[in-house]
Amino acid sequence: MALEEAGDAAEVHRVFEEMPIVMYAMAGPDHRIVAANAVARAISGRPGQVGRTVAEVFPGALTQQILEVYDRVYRTGVAQPALEWRLQVEREDGRREEKYWDFVVSPRFDESGAVIGLTQYSVEVTGRVREREAERQRAELAERRYARARDVVVALQLELLPGGMPVLPRARAAAGYLPAEADTAAGGDWFDALALSDGRLALILGDVAGHGVAASATMGQLRAVVQDRLLDGGDIAAALAAADRLAGRLPAARGATVCVAILDPADGSLVYCTAGHPPPLLVGAGGPSRYLPATGAGPLGGGGGPFPLGSDRLAVGDLLLLVSDGLIERPGREYAESLVELANVAEDTAADRVLRDSGLTPVQRVCVQTIELLLRPTGHSDDVTMLAVQRVLPPAPLRRSFGATLESIAPAHAAIGDWLRELGAGDKDVTALRHAVSELVTNSIQHAYRGGAPGRVRLSADLDIDGQVRVEVADDGRWHEHPPSISGGLGLVLVEQMVHQFRLRRGHHGTTAEVRHRITTPARLLIAERVGPSVAGDPELLLVLDQPSAPGPRVRLDGPVTAATAGVLAKELQRLTRNGTRPLTVDLTGVTLLASAGVVVLQHVLRRDAEHDGSLVLYAPAGSPAQHVLTLSAMPHRTDDPHAAA
Asked: Over 80: is that where the pLDDT of 276 sits?
């Protein structure tokens, strides 16, 4: 086409400059920018883009897989689109902005047909993605939504996999799992992390060929055998020999691969076996990554092993990754190339150099972000599973002391919550132990220091080598029984039901309440789009918020309902229900802690409502802290939103 057919040069330049999308033209294999419109220049906030390479203008392109797309298009001469990529751009002033983009990278050719450069146009779609994320967060928890949407085969597989990873003083574990054909198929990948009685941590990652009922059932049988043998002495060779014998009798299990590793967090010693499975990857805290040597054992079902062991040692800060072949054998990737790419991306995510400030621990970050970054250019055709453990320094024990007043309840349950989240404990465990601490602090204040007598309440928490948290709430007062009441003893009953062990010791010099509870960190079932952002911390004030847009009278509670805030709630509910004569829906979705004092208030309001034939409705979504306590207390409530249709 003759140049004049494109239009006047000045007009073409003006149109290019004013296009409301990002447009770049690049030359050469190093992708040197030769043209950039106004929107493109404004993205980085860096002057003088033209004449510099993409890597110089956007340093984050080196770790966010962008240059890999450019290199492939330049090498193959085939355009490549990308949808909703999450990218972080570091501006000239050091600020990092995270946004989502749709973009297309296309080759530029010379007269002979050789590739001489690239063009790229991009459209920001952050608003679209954020809106979708907001809708997801307003829905019920992702795990429950997935459980309802999946068929019975997938539900079976998820039931067979562990819901959480143990948390040990010197080791942090995490897992990420993405099923093949998300939402429609169940695969044969399985994983486990077991806290052994001597303080060691066993990690297992296996893969049964195929999908569907047979693969899930076979996986469950193999997992049970390996788990049982490891818990009975921690002998890897004996566990694999037992699984091998089972696989010899089960045709569906023949050829299954498994990697087992046992870490002693105290000294970092590691023993492992790769039975036909990809070798573990060690991401060093102060050096490059390296794959551990395969031990030479074959897949299960081959007839008796042998199962030789390898050994290594983890320094403090080192990460060990076990991965399924679904992450290595990705579409369009050679095996060796994929191994190198996995090691590089795992290094970057472990060091928090990519999608920074995620709020995840290093092992959680590696499991989530590595899978996201590696799969978004290629997709996946098989289950993808990653299991990670990091050797860490033991956490400092929690030691706090509070005045014996109701105002101490909020800082006490905030202190235990912050300490547990630093350990990576899951929401259910945090909720249970925060509830227990609030009840026990309230108990000390009301029984040990009757009538407002001065005193102190001491809170301590330790993490034992077997993954149990030991919490003590102690005082120096003398126990005083209260007159019988509706709420008498309810708080301690709830504590006993929510934790694994509870003991109360009373003496002449004070009362000590001891709670033991084994904590875990959640294993993450990933979704094809991405893992959502972390949720903001809980408020410490109780807010009673009117909902004027609801079709009927409705309020939402946000924050903790404890002895310190229950009085405010009682007055508000009395006013809003007009002493039980006015209908009201109470949305407990935002309640972070429902202590026994709050239960008593709600019981009283329900009883008063029934006397006046009113229509008070308590709404607590399934899985929420309030729903758990209301169920234990046998109080009527709804888990579905009564105003959802409206």
From this structure: yes
